[in-house]
Amino acid sequence: MGAGLLRRVRRDAQKARADQDHRRMMVSPSAAASRTNSPLWKRGAGGDLATLAAATNPRTSSPFKGRPSGLPRLSRLSRLRGLRLLLHLFLIFTPFPAAASPACPHLTSPSAKDRMADLEQQVRFHNDLYYKSLRPAITDAQYDLLFAELVQLEQCFPSLAGIDSPTGKVGTDSGTSGPSLRHERPMLSLTSSTGPEAVAALLQRAATKESKPGLLLQPKVDGLPVELLYRSGRLVSAATRGDGRLGADVTKRVREITGIPLRLSGRFPDRVTVRGEIYAERGLMAKATAGRSKRYATPRHFAAATLRSQHPAPLALAALRLFPFELVAAENVPGISSDLAALGALSRWGFPVRPDLTLQVRSLDQIKAAYQKYLAQRSEHPFATDGIVVKIDHLALRRSLGEGSRAPFWAAAWKFPPETARTVVRAIRWKQGRTGRRTPVAEVVPVTLAGVVVSHVTLHNEQTVQRLCIEAGDRVVIGLVADIIPQLLEVEREQGDGACPEEASVVATPEAGIAACLSDAPGCREQFLARVVHFASGAGLDIPGLGPGRLRRLVESGLVRDLPSLFLLKQEEVASVSGFTDQSARRLTEALSRVGRPEPFRLVAALGIAGIGPVTARRLANRFDSLDALLSSQQEKPDCGEAVQNIRSFFGSSQGQELLRGLREANLL
Known about the structure:
The structure is a single chain. By secondary structure, this protein is of the alpha+beta class. The protein folds into five domains: 3-99, no CATH class; 110-168, Helix hairpin bin (Helix Hairpins, Orthogonal Bundle), CATH 1.10.287.610; 180-415, D-amino Acid Aminotransferase, Chain A, domain 1, CATH 3.30.470; 419-492, CATH 2.40.50.140; 525-665, DNA polymerase, domain 1 (Orthogonal Bundle), CATH 1.10.150. It is built from 26 helices and 16 strands. It has a five-stranded mixed β-sheet. A five-stranded antiparallel β-sheet has the order 14-13-12-15-16. It has a four-stranded antiparallel β-sheet with strand order 5-4-7-8. Helix 7 (109-133) packs across helix 23 (614-623), helix 22 (600-606) packs antiparallel against helix 23 and helix 25 crosses helix 26 (654-665). The longest helix has 25 residues, at 3-27. It is globular and about 75 Å long.
């Protein structure tokens, strides 16, 4: 179709819509308003020509026959305009559903709504573990899959998207009970991908405004984002990103970090706001954590825990540094029109800017080359890095592209693949978990990945061992997926066919009952320890100061005999246990008292019942008024049958009944 005809079709469509609006307003003043809320009029709603025609035909869309009363008979010209309108709608909707909808799953609205609600709960739960508890339970890659599925479903079913969906938010709240500070402008996250897709999309957006715009490329530092505010050259406040609007006040700790200027140098505006990443320097972090039982999932969590601590260890605080990456409202500073110029100003004012790690690029090929360079130098940086960040350099173009509710449209990140290393399996051992399930673990010759010494790799289950045919002496490739969890990626064999050796075999121990080892009974030490660690973790009741090492000492001392006894601990008893001081014992007993009486189904999730995690527990809480109601109910609930049966079996056993009495006596239920 020629451009001129298409313009006429669009012009006639606009006039026809205006005429139709005028007629409808004559009949009902609310009709025009309701029309705009109809799915028919929303771009991207899809539908074939017959559906569109039926929806606009008074004979098929009206409950009565003929022309509705009150509406004048349409002239031939109006009917022609109506046909042109249908043609225009056909051009908009018909060719493109195939391009827009293949990624959409074939789900009914109720099924999609249930899945979206489930994903929202999972994303919020893992946000809390990552940002508040600093104890992530899954890798970044696994989280990204959950988040991407939720985004996809919200795009495919926009009317079902929750108003408070986590996809429209940045992280979560600060996770601290202290004061909060409001950001000058929203402190957003970044759109990212494990391939070049996010960066390529950024280039496409920018190309609509300017051909081959200037770009800046920097490493994606694995740290804690903060915002620093200076007035008259003096540092007056510092806040974490938090939820993007409010962040935790960490001014006191930030003042103690090496390299952050307390007073600016040279000539500067009266008000200066700077953003950057607080990161842990690799070598200094290793010294700070040497010999300590507490382990951190990532350097970011080490930095976050140190900033939040009321009494951080001197070595931990000394390990922190700042990587500045943005001067907020730089366009208001005379003489600054680009991000590169803003970074230069920060350097002159005394900030530790790294010009050697800031590259100017203009094309995807240049970005790919820089990506490979940074990937090769990944372990050489003093900080942990998990990708690159590409930003529009010109500030005016940034303003033109704008920002979303979660991320700006003028920047994107390209994440690195997991770091890998080759090693040799020493032995296959079995680890007993809280439910009695035994998990195979490969003990390997220690190797260093992303600054972490790895000597054990989980094999997940017996089927994995059998599928990989893995045994002592095998050469393997392991990776630190998302810089968090070691995983076995490949078994290297000399024989070309990769056949499994005939003598390789695995003997699995049958799993214990669902309510086995609820106390430190004979033969139950390791399984009970796994259960109590889960009970106190971020996935359970989130009790600070109770890691695996301390819990083991409390169990071995006889003070913790079952789960309720944890809440009967006295300060003087705890202080007598190796590894505790009077101060740490006091903090622990205070933390236990703050738990109070948790929500019943949160407590159920903390008990470590097979198949009952936080998400399932929340679903049960929506279907049953109380735990007693669940245990006594004779009516099965949809989508909860197996979970309900597991809980009933757990509390129906003699050990479960004893635990239930203990929880009530400890005032937890």
